Backbone:
């Protein structure tokens, strides 16, 4: 059986200095190869550092990366996985106090809401404002609101690549 291959990006938006090496070790365990990230100070969260790394691996690797990183509840991070044969793309975000937000992602990076999710929301929303709030929940607005300042701090950062050993 041929393995489905895909790629994605891990954005560690905020990590305490003491955990930087542990984050690299966690990524190594999932990828199966040595990882050395380029860490930069994160101006949006005093005393934190940020790094981003592109990865290639089998479909489902993004979920494994999230499971490895969420072991430290003080991290802020996002993991994307590109679509592959038989699998939609995904974006997974983690914010302290909110946990993981996971949603399908289209080829151009838009988040996808299903027909059934919209039908359920339309049937249960008690007002226009409740509907708007429900759409925000489906789109992960609470995660985006928290992460937005951290995302801009990484503009212009150099990319790093990880390749999964298969």
Residues:
């Amino acid at each position: 059986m041929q393995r489905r291959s895909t790629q994605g990006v891990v954005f560690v938006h905020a990590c305490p200095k003491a955990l930087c090496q542990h984050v690299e070790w966690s990524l190594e365990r999932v990828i199966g190869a040595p990882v050395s990230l380029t860490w930069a100070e994160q101006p949006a969260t005093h005393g934190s550092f940020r790094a981003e790394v592109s990865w290639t691996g089998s479909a489902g690797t993004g979920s494994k990366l999230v499971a490895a990183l969420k072991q430290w509840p003080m991290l802020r991070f996002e993991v994307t996985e590109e679509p592959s044969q038989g699998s939609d793309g995904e974006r997974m975000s983690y914010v302290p106090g909110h946990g993981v937000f996971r949603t399908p992602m289209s080829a151009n990076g838009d988040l996808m809401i299903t027909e059934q999710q919209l039908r359920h929301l339309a049937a249960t929303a008690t007002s226009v404002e409740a509907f708007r709030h429900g759409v925000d929940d489906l789109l992960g607005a609470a995660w985006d609101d928290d992460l937005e300042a951290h995302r801009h701090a990484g503009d212009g950062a150099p990319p790093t690549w990880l390749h999964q050993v298969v």
